[in-house]
Amino acid sequence: MATLTNASRVCLRGMTKQTALASVPVRALATSASLQDSAAPSAYGYQATFKGQSKGAQIPNFGNYMSDKAPATNKLFSYFMVGGLGAISAAGAKSTVEEFLKNMSASADVLAMAKVEVDLNAIPEGKNVIIKWRGKPVFIRHRTESEIAEANKVNIASLRDPENDADRVKKPEWLVMLGVCTHLGCVPIGEAGDYGGWFCPCHGSHYDISGRIRKGPAPLNLEIPEYEFPEDGKLVIG
Q1: Which domain holds residue 176?
Q2: Percent of the chain clearing pLDDT 90 (strictly above)
Q3: If exposure means fewest CB atoms within 10 Å of the residue's CB, which of 13, 113, 182, 212 is most exposed?
Q4: Which positions fall inside the Rieske domain (predicted)?
């Protein structure tokens, strides 16, 4: 019995080894078949990643969009367009700036008021003339020799606004001043007051023959505008 049992075990072991060897090619064939099946397109649209590049990874061809003309022709047209647009833009900017400057510049009537020319031959000695310049009155006094001497002998240290007569005139016989009181802007009266010059009746300011404040609330002398004598007998104010 023991011998029969051992013989049976040996036969079973041999059969198991043969069965294992026979199954190896079957598994290898099954694996190869599954790889071939996976390489083929699936019915559901799946494609193996190791087959190759997809369409999305390929560089597109732009040949249909390229110009058939020579590159030099295309560049010449581009340069022409850029230059034309630049010239048009420059012309528009120039026109805009010119219109802006015209609107900002003074008009003809304002320029006419900027300067006033006065004929001094029409003013006798010892008389005053009042003209309008830039909306303000201007006093022009043709002074006599005695008036000039009186203006020069005043001690300027006693004046509220010290100023020599020579510093207020370009020619001693001609005194040119703005006819506006330096207190509150009133217009003084000529040949009046305690000092023989000008008097402001509004608040009692007295100016001498040189237009300097001598008495009253005015703090400063009458203002001297810009003027010149371009020729004998002509005065230009402004």
Answers
A1: 116-237
A2: 46
A3: 13
A4: 140-236
